[in-house]
C-alpha cells in the first residue's frame, strides 16, 4: 500500500457509530458462524459421496487456502477502499459459499464453498476487527479488541452448534443449516450497508498486497510464539474437522447435535480465555498457554485410549483456553518486538503460520487415519502436538531468562 493513502476519522460518538459497531459485530459473528457450519455434517457428506477421513480433512483444510490468500492479498485493502466495501466483499463470499453448499452439487461445490468461506473469514478477521476499533463507543473503546475476539470465537463455535441441532431435528440436514445462515446474513448485509465509513478515502490511492515478513528485531520472539500458535491452531483444526468422527466411531456417540455442542465448547473456552485472562502478562501467558494446551491434549488422548466421553469433553474446553492464551500472548509479544514499518508484515506472517497449522497437520491425520484408523491417528497426533507445545514452552522460558 502506498504511504498516506487514507486516514481514519476521529471516532464519532453518535448513534450512527454505535449502530455501526453493533452491525459490524453482528456481521462478524454470522460470517464466522458460516465457516464452521459443515463440521457436524461431514459424516453425511461422506455417506452421500462415498469418501473417507482423508478427503474430509482435505475439504476442511482448503478453507485455510482462502483465509491465507485473503489475509495476504486484502489484509490492508480496507485502508484504501474503505471498511464498508471490504466487509461487503466478505459478506458476498460468505453468501456464495452458502449457496454452493445448498446446491448439493458434489465434491467441486464442497471444495469451492470451503475456499470462499475461507476468503470471507480472512477478510473479516482483519477488516471487521479494525472497523470495531474505529466505531467503538467510548465505554467500549478499550475493550473493542476483546469484543472482536469474543465475537470471532463465539461465531465459530455457534456454527457447529446450529448445524448439529438442525441436522438432528430437521428432515433436510444438508439444507437447513445453510438456509438459516443465509437468512442470518441478510440483516448483516443491510447493517453493513448503513454503517458509517470510518476511513477517509484519498482519491487515486493505490493498494499493494501485504507481503509477509519477519522483522529482524522480532525473530527471537517470533519463532517460539509461532511454534506455540502453530500447535494451538493444529489442535483447533483437528477437533473442528474430525472430533464428530471421534465421537461417532471411537465413542459410539453419533448424535450430531452432541457433536456440534462439544465443538462449541472449544470455541467458548477460547472466548472465555481471551476475555477472562486478558490481564495475564504476556511473559506468563505465552508459556502457560502451551502448558494448558498439553493438559487439554492429555484429556483428548485419555478419551481416545479409554473411549471415555468426559475426559474428551474436558480436554476440548481446556484446549480452547490454551489456544486463547497462546494466540493473544503471541500477538502481543511480536507486536511489541517488531518496529512499526515491519509490524503489519510480521503479524501477517504470524497469521500465515497459524492457518498453516490449521491445514497441513489435519491432512496428515487424514492420511494416518486411512492407514491405521482414526483412533490411532488421533492418539499419535495428540502426542506429537504435545511435544511441539512443550518445545515452544521451553524456548519461551529460555528466551525470557535471557
Automatic annotation (TrEMBL):
> Which SUPFAM superfamilies does the protein's record reference?
MFS general substrate transporter (SSF103473)
Q: Do the record's keywords include Repeat?
A: no
Kindly name one Pfam family recorded for this protein: MFS_1
Q: Which residues form the Major facilitator superfamily (MFS) profile domain?
A: 15-402
Q: Could you tell me the keywords of this UniProt record?
A: Cell membrane, Membrane, Transmembrane, Transmembrane helix, Transport
Q: GO molecular-function annotation terms? A: transmembrane transporter activity
**Membrane topology type:** Multi-pass membrane protein
> Which domain of life does the protein's organism represent?
Bacteria
Query: Cellular component per GO?
Result: plasma membrane
The cross-references to Gene3D superfamilies, in alphabetical order and at most eight, read: MFS general substrate transporter like domains
Record PANTHER family: MAJOR FACILITATOR SUPERFAMILY MFS_1, RESISTANCE PROTEIN MDTM, PUTATIVE-RELATED-RELATED
Instruction: State the name under which the record lists this protein.
Output: MFS transporter
